[in-house]
Amino acid sequence: MPMSAGSHARPIKLALVSCGLGHVQRGFEIATARWHAALSSDPRLRVKLFSGGAFPDAEPVWNIARDRLLRSPLGAVRSLNAPRLWRFCYRVEQHTFGLGFIPKLWSWRPDVVWVQDLLLGRVLASSRELLRLKFKIVFANSVFPPHDYRAFDLIQQMHPDALALGVRAGVDAAKMRVLPHYVPYTAPAESPRELRREMQFADDDWIVVCVAAWNSYQKRLDYLIEEAADCAIHL
Fold first, then answer.
1. What is the distance in angstroms between the CA of the first residue and the CA of the last residue of the chain?
2. Does residue 6 lie in a domain region?
3. pLDDT tens-place string over residues 195-214
4. Other C-beta atoms within 10 Å of 37: how many?
């Protein structure tokens, strides 16, 4: 989807959507907000950020938040099967956000919708057919296999290996791009050695850094902890 460089070209209307933004602060949500911050000043674009809850510079969209369901009486059955309950609540959030987003699609009529939530992307694709709109869907893929995302118009892959996997599975390479998430970086004033001392690490200590949701069924932090502990025992 190339952008015209002509001086009279209409800016592309880009909708960045995240059903969890404003409810939780995790990877999908933070990445969406960062892309909005990075792209908003581009004169080739008219960028709007759509969130599931209240968030700075975002337009909220009605939905039933996953955490709201987990705090409801439904959450009392969490002990029976926490992973399945979480997935159910997340699906409800995506479905209801998709329904709440239909009036925004109809009134603003974006050229491109960028999304990371797989089920929400499928709801948007169905809404596009129902409303006979012409927007393209860019799916930012981080964890899903090729058969889940092959139907989207463009796939943003986070790593070359993910693109290669998609090609091997028959996804057209022309509709995929490798583009890691935007992460603002500020060089630390201290040297690596000074930072180690500040955090009370020795110069030869191994440091494993993991940024993820703190649970065992979604990000498998239990596996990481057990493997790190096993390595430490055998060092």
1. 51
2. no
3. 999 999 998 888 888 877 77
4. 15
Residue carrying the six token digits 């699906």: 91
Residue 218 belongs to domain spanning: 192-234
Supply the pLDDT for residue 207: 85
Instruction: Give the rounded distance of the alpha carbon of 48 from its chain centre.
Output: 16
pTM score: 0.83
pLDDT tens-digit series, residues 143-190: 899 999 999 999 999 999 999 999 999 999 999 999 999 888 888 889
Say whether both 82 and 171 belong to one domain: yes
Q: Which residue from 108, 138, 142 is spatially nearest to 124, judged by alpha carbons? A: 138
Distance of CA 163 to the CA centre of its chain: 17
Residues 170 and 201 in one domain: no
- Taking the C-alpha atoms of residue 24 and residue 117, their distance in angstroms, rounded to an integer, is 14
Distance from C-alpha of 33 to C-alpha of 51, rounded to nearest angstrom = 9
Find the CATH number of the domain harbouring 85: 3.40.50.2000
Give the pLDDT score at 217.
64
Total domain count, the chain? 2
Give the residue carrying structure tokens 């050695």.
Answer: 193
Shared domain check, 125 and 38: yes
